[in-house]
Write a structure and sequence with these properties.
Structural class: alpha+beta
Order of helices and strands: HEEEEEEEEEHE
Radius of gyration: 23 Å
Number of domains: 1
Distance between the termini: 57 Å
């Protein structure tokens, strides 16, 4: 007759092996976009993402060994001035990053400053954005 202890051994082995075989979750990278002046519109390939400041969350490939290019973005201010943003994620990068995008030196800065001030004065920012918090959070997949 088999002892109860020896009957549990295969079951314990299965439980231990199942715990080790969990699939790794995709790492995330958070990028906060701040513009100077604020309240510019952030666009992705698919369309408008939202007003700045804004934080986006990117899914990064599991166990990647070289840099990957992330979805291209651009910022447009009220005057029509714009700036392209190229992002990449590399092994060892910090999981949280912040970019400040400065408006290019083209005419219309006074319009953008007026717009940023007016939006704030009228309280038209998303709920927590006026406190320096990023209210809109979006998931954007990386190019693979």
């Amino acid at each position: 007759m088999e002892s109860p202890r020896s009957a549990l051994a295969p079951l314990l082995l299965v439980v231990v092996l199942c715990g080790c075989a969990a699939t790794p979750t995709a790492p995330k990278m958070s990028v906060a976009f701040v513009t100077d002046p604020p309240n510019a519109s952030l666009y992705a390939t698919s369309g408008i993402v939202g007003p700045t400041p804004l934080t986006l969350h990117y899914d990064i490939p599991v166990n990647f060994t070289s840099c990957v290019e992330l979805e291209g973005l651009h910022v447009v201010w009220a005057s029509g001035a714009w700036q392209a943003i190229e992002l990449s994620a590399c092994p060892g990068d910090a999981p949280e990053r912040q970019f400040t995008i400065r408006r290019p030196a083209v005419p219309g800065r006074d319009v953008d400053l007026w717009y940023a001030t007016r939006i704030t004065d009228l309280g038209l920012l998303p709920a927590d954005q006026g406190n320096g918090q990023n209210a809109a959070i979006t998931t954007v997949a990386s190019k693979r």
